[in-house]
Amino acid sequence: xxxxxxxxxxxxxxxxxxxxxxxxxxxxxxxxxxxxxxxxxxxxxxxxxxxxxxxxxxxxxxxxxxxxxxxxxxxxxxxxxxxxxxxxxxxxxxxxxxxxxxxxxxxxxxxxxxxxxxxxxxxxxxxxxxxxxxxxxxxxxxxxxxxxxxxxxxxxxxxxxxxxxxxxxxxxxxxxxxxxxxxxxxxxxxxxxxxxxxxxxxxxxxxxxxxxxxxxxxxxxxxxxxxxxxxxxxxxxxxxxxxxxxxxxxxxxxxxxxxxxxxxxxxxxxxxxxxxxxxxxxxxxxxxxxxxxxxxxxxxxxxxxxxxxxxxxxxxxxxxxxxxxxxxxxxxxxxxxxxxxxxxxxxxxxxxxxxxxxxxxxxxxxxxxxxxxxxxxxxxxxxxxxxxxxxxxxxxxxxxxxxxxxxxxxxxxxxxxxxxxxxxxxxxxxxxx
Length: 433
Known about the structure:
Layout: E1 2-5, H1 9-14, E2 36-41, H2 48-63, E3 68-73, H3 76-87, E4 95-98, H4 102-110, H5 118-123, H6 126-129, H7 132-136, E5 139-140, E6 150-151, E7 154-155, E8 158-166, H8 167-172, H9 181-193, E9 199-200, H10 206-218, H11 222-230, H12 240-254, H13 267-275, E10 281-285, H14 289-295, E11 300-303, E12 313-315, E13 318-320, H15 328-338, H16 341-349, H17 365-379, H18 394-406, H19 412-431
Parallel strand pairs: 1-3, 2-3, 2-4, 9-10
Antiparallel strand pairs: 4-13, 5-6, 7-13, 8-10, 8-11, 8-12
């Protein structure tokens, strides 16, 4: 019953208000009589998500033999760019993968383009299956701000930032895996004394900002995270959380723990240099895991940022149901299936960080460690999201300000002033609706 279609790039360009041939639409809401479930996603078949969702489709078809499943393979950029235009029409998918956050799922929700899923979350137990920090990206208020209001999406995998380390280099220099920030600094000092720069970094893109935010979280609590990310309170950019983090990062730069040319390096530069054995540690996301498995020859492992209860990370992308979808109840059933153990365990085995899986079912040791580290964060309700999430355009602000720190053209206090202004302006714009 499964039919797979190629991305409708040409259709989106030529006919922006209706995706020609999309079998899920037509009546502009409610449940259809033609018993078709149309799914849009942008994961390749070999990925952890692609494998897991193929299993979910198989289960759905077994349990709904009279329903035809149509999979429309899109691209991330295609859905990001065209979702608002497409979803205002009648020819829409019944369920689709979409990016989480205020500027994406939140924006569509605030514009009435997504179906509230709060009742389904309660009836199907999603509100107990998913931890509170995972639920944050699933709920949005009337202004599209995440963390409260109705459920508009459901995640079934996660992502987080941790520390990848070269086990061979650690053994060569007699360095143990650190469990506290002080131990991490001791380890970095040991490498530096031996003429080895400890941290692979990239100041031209996201990695340095994520390292900075890990240091912020080392000094922060949940109240701070709620204020910074959800605007539940005021953020003091010259307060102890951000001041200590920025001064620590400046200190690491002064001591040579981060290479002086890192300001101009990209995430790809960082990853390749770690893979090649230039640096013993890389602080970055779980999305690097598969690449390291395929390309890194040295023995390596991964641990959570030492000493932190709060960690950089979030749910993965969301399953959402468009307001004009025909088969909403079928869409909810499919979403529910993606959270079942047999689907979640496929995610886990493939390194996809399930949100409701069984770590003991994973056989590969590296994958088991990665998943256990993520489970430890979830158990502490420790996902603190990403530093650039709060306001539009903040990614570029963080990159620019931290490049100035690496280049030593700004003091930590000046960097924090540079971060504060755009944050407060963006916050005011969002709260004004």
